[in-house]
Write a structure and sequence with these properties.
Blueprint lengths: L8 H9 L14 E3 L8 E4 L5 E3 L2
Antiparallel strand pairs: 1-2, 2-3
Bound molecules: zinc ion.
Zinc ion binds next to loops.
Length: about 55
């Protein structure tokens, strides 16, 4: 699996938009999941620590 923890934010966003698995940079075990439509939303949330990642 690709080491998503070292990716730049725009690369992480690109993967999230593609529906790929991106690990949470905060707890490093959770997976970032879209709030709403992965293609349109700007907010993703970790399924473990619930930390939100917001792209503007
Ligand atoms: Zn997390």
């Amino acid at each position: 699996m690709k080491d998503t923890l070292t990716l730049m934010p725009h690369e992480r966003l690109k993967m999230l938009r593609n529906g790929e698995i991106v690990l949470c940079t905060h707890c490093k075990v959770g997976i970032m999941q879209p709030i709403g439509d992965a293609v349109k939303t700007n907010t993703f949330q970790c399924n473990k620590c619930k930390r939100q990642m917001i792209f503007n």
